[in-house]
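Tutorial, part two.
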Amino acid sequence: MRTWLWLLLLCAACGHHSPSSPSPVSSSQRKLTTRIVTTTRPDTLPPPTVDPRFAAWRVRYDSLVVLVDTIVVLSPDSIVLHVGQTYDEDSIRVESRRASGQSVPRVGHEYAIEDMSIAEPNEVGLTGLRVGRTRLRITVISSKAHAPPNYLPVIVLP
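Running the prediction step on this input gives:
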């Protein structure tokens, strides 16, 4: 591998001719030169740069989700589907609350089905696959959250 790299660099160096007289370069013709580094070990790469606005948002969000004590499902009480039918997950109304009962706005929630052989989430929503009962697990989106999940029953009929 290194031999090929050295050969490529040698050919590139030999094939490069410098002009006898420098020509004026316009701003649209300037070249950008950068160093390219390849590695087979991702742990040797420097950490990616994070936009400071995203980092500030992340700090604010993490400080908000630690306030969440409970996740309340406002509607529906349960999801009843027939095999092949799809339920739009956007119609599920969920609210995060503090221990005092006060709502904590703008907290994201994640949905996960316990038994994916009965119902399965996809691009359209939640689709019933076979007859049975399972639950939709609702959690706060954050590793810093300590609120326990809430569950919504999912029933699939023939």
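The radius of gyration is 28 Å. In part three we will examine how such features are distributed along the chain.
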